Each structure stands twice: as C-alpha cells, then as structure tokens.
Amino acid sequence: IVSSANILGVLDFYKTVYRDEQLGEARTQRLVSGRNRSFTDFQRGKSAILIESNWFYYTAIDPQGDFPIADRDAVVGWAKMPARAPGGGVRAQDFVSVSGGNSFVLNPHSKHPREAWSLLAFMNSAPALRNYQEYNEHLCVRD
C-alpha cells in the first residue's frame, strides 16, 4: 500500500518504539480517549516524555489549560524533534516537525472550492502565520 521510503521509515520507527522495544504505551494509543489519557498521565507525572506538537506546552499544560501544570515553566522543558541525521530535516535543518502544524481540509463537495483553497492558502502564508503568532505563542510551522 505504501511505497514512499520516508513513510515506511516513519512506520518502522513506530514499530520500533511500540512493538520491538516497547518504549511507548501502545494500549493508551489505541483507546478512544487515549490522547487525553496520555496528557493526564503526563500532567500527573506518570509519563516522563510526551512527543506532541508545541501547542501541548503552550496550550494543554498551560497553568490555565485543560491539563494544567501550575509551575509548568519551571518543571517542564521542550525540545525540537531531532532529524534522523544532522542536517536531515527540511532545508538541511537538524530537526523535524512532529506534526507539521495545523491541519485544514477542503470538503470535496464544496460549492466554492477555488475560494476555499484561496482562503486556506492565505491562512497558511508566512505573513498570516507570523501575525497569528502575536496572538497565540507557538513555534511557527514556517520556521
């Protein structure tokens, strides 16, 4: 089904983490509420590491967030996901994105697909994303 070497590499990475080395909580990942459970486990100190996009730090575990950690800035650190090899990321960066940023989709039955596409293109343009950062602190997907 999949022929892309990069996608196969990602799938092999998940196989290593969850099956071969059992480093991740595979059962939690299969639960309908698994994501929330993993957030709660992290909040309560049951998980040492959580690989998630940076919104988790800025939003979910914000002291006023859904999974608050009152002293978050003092006790929680975060790091960019390292690339498989130095310089192996986009534009020869040493890191890669875990999630790639926000996801937007177009309804295939839209009456105005060109206008919808234009809106999404604008919303994801470098100027729009940089402006958005002024209101919602996070790492920009264009950085």
Automatic annotation (TrEMBL):
This is Extracellular solute-binding protein. The lineage of its organism: unclassified sequences, metagenomes, ecological metagenomes. InterPro entries: SBP. Signal peptide: none annotated. It holds the Pfam family SBP_bac_1.
